[in-house]
Write a structure and sequence with these properties.
With 297 residues, this protein is of the alpha+beta class. It has helices spanning 25-28, 42-66, 71-74, 81-86, 129-137, 149-162, 166-172, 181-193, 199-231, 281-296, and strands at residues 104-115, 121-123, 127-128, 235-246, 264-266, 271-272. Helices cover 44% and strands 11% of the residues. Strands 1, 2, 3, 4, 5 and 6 form a six-stranded antiparallel sheet that branches.
Length: 297
């Protein structure tokens, strides 16, 4: 006699568990549609739009600034908008790379003449503003931009100074401590610039003088801030010293006896103080003096 298996047990489990994924869908009825996501609010769209525009402008400005100089390319941005945007916060230099990598250190030193309440004057020693600033960024994973100001000031000043004639350098080495000393310095330098017989050279001399006067003003203003931060309100005159010292030449890099070349020093004369309109001397003094006292302990 033959026997037949019960249909309910032919596959070893309940039929309801072996159905298709949609089994029971007919019994449950149609599924509800997924809820629609709300559109971003208007202010979110505006913020995103402004952020995209700013990012595009920043990329364009950075490209124009660091690319090889081209007057036509930079004319895309009218006036001084490009330099005003990039400096001082976004200025970049690729001079660490070949073919002309940085091969020297710049230093900016300051000293002052102090006058007490009795009218007695005394001269201070030199303070290295560069050493004070470098101590802010050494071993610092988030270095402040304040740590490179004096280096930039020194570099720009020496470049402008090197473009002067020998006579103009002698003039710059003199003391200018009158109230309107920049007027007198300009007159003396421009008078020498006019002595060139060649028109092209005379124009070039005039441009060099203009750039030097700009860097002279900037350097004296910076020296004034440093002096007042260190010695206070008794400062009546300042003098700064700019130096550049090359590193050991590449050809002698494996020579343990090799020495760095002697520093090249530029020493302008004494200057009356320069205070820029709107500057916050108090904030500068707080930061600089605190760092100066820390490394002097």
């Amino acid at each position: 006699m033959t026997s037949t298996a019960s249909p309910s047990k032919s596959n070893g489990h309940d039929d309801s568990s072996s159905g298709t994924p949609n089994a029971g869908a007919d019994r449950a009825g149609p599924q509800a549609p997924a809820p629609r996501q709300a559109s971003p609010k208007l202010w979110v769209r505006l913020v995103a739009f402004v952020a995209v525009l700013f990012a595009g402008w920043h990329i364009l400005a950075s490209f124009l600034w660091i690319a090889p100089f081209s007057a036509n390319a930079r004319e895309i941005v009218p006036g001084n908008a490009l330099s005003s945007y990039m400096l001082p916060m976004f200025g970049q230099s690729w001079s660490v790379f070949a073919p002309e990598p940085v091969n020297g250190d710049f230093h900016f030193n300051v000293r002052a003449v102090l006058e007490d309440d009795a009218g007695s004057r005394s001269e201070t020693g030199w303070v290295s503003a560069t050493d004070v600033e470098l101590s802010m960024i050494r071993y610092n994973l988030t270095p402040p931009r304040a740590g490179i100001q004096s280096t930039e000031v020194a570099s720009n000043f020496k470049k402008a100074y090197d473009a002067l004639t020998d006579t103009q350098r002698t003039i710059a080495a003199g003391d200018f401590t009158a109230a309107e000393w920049e007027v007198g310095l300009r007159a003396a330098l421009e008078n020498d610039a006019k002595n060139a017989t060649d028109t092209t050279q005379a124009d070039k001399n005039a441009q060099n003088v203009e750039e030097f006067l700009h860097q002279e003003h900037r350097s004296t203003a910076y020296a004034t801030q440093v002096a007042e931060a260190v010695w206070g309100d008794e400062v009546v005159e300042v003098q700064y010293r700019v130096s550049r010292q090359n590193i050991i030449p590449f050809a002698e890099r494996h020579n343990p006896q090799a020495q760095r070349p002697e520093a090249t020093v530029v020493l302008p004369g004494w200057r009356a103080l320069v205070v820029e309109e709107g500057q916050n001397s108090g904030n500068f003094a707080d930061v600089f003096r605190r760092q100066f006292e820390r490394i002097s302990e």
